[in-house]
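To: structure subgroup
Subject: Chain for Friday's discussion

All,

I'm putting the inputs and outputs inline so they're searchable in the archive.
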Amino acid sequence: MSSLTGRVALVTGAGRGVGRATALRLARDGVHIVVNDLDPDPVAETVRSITDAGGSAVAAPGDITASATPDFLIASAIDAWGALDIVINNAGYIWNSAMHRHDDTQWQSMLDIHATAPFRILRAWFPWLKERARAEQERLGAPLCRKVVNVSSVSGTRGAATQIAYATGKAAVIGLTRTLAKEWGRYNVCVNCVAFGHIETRLTQPYDEAPPRIAVGGREHNVGLTATQIEAARLAAPLGRSGRPEDGAGAIYLLCLPESDFITGEVLTCSGGA
């Protein structure tokens, strides 16, 4: 039996990529998963994969930038299992262009998805968290240790050309992480962040001519990397390869384990050493 068996986790952006790999990894350890993504079909597929393997999951599709979604996500966990022990703020996308081509909508969209939505989700969790921690303090002498793992990027730690809004949003995630670690230590919550380098997802898929596009909120966005960009990322990593979704999930998983119960306010870079 895993040390995580019976815990409850919310994973945003769990329909694809790192989020899906994270949900599957935690479910393998007996964690009950609230599966969130913008699109219901990938959510249903992740839930099906978990339950077919003998795990436990509920679907909670929805746009995390919508004002009602954070409360819905927290309620999904509490209604299903009466608890929420791990929050993984993973959902996001890219919208790239040079700084002088960013309009206000592009700028705000990146801040909304990468910084404001995680803030609102964690704020929605707080009333339940505070009451549960107080009850555990009285009954057990200390609250159980709970975890927040926010997802940032090396674009947020180092900057990246054509990603000024994205990089700013990902940098804000680090400020959110370090501040909340100081505020929520009293409730025995460890708040940490993983900053990803090049991970192979649909956002970094290879292309030769026209970049592929994804639809988000009624708009289409270019994604993907050229073969030259992918090779440059590979060469920059001492490990000599790009990351896979499972690599990203592994980094998140480390910060969910009891072995990380005295680690908080930290940023773990998962980039193959690039």
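Points worth raising on Friday:
Residues 234 and 273 are 10 Å apart (CA to CA).
Residues 104-140 form the longest helix (37 residues).

D.
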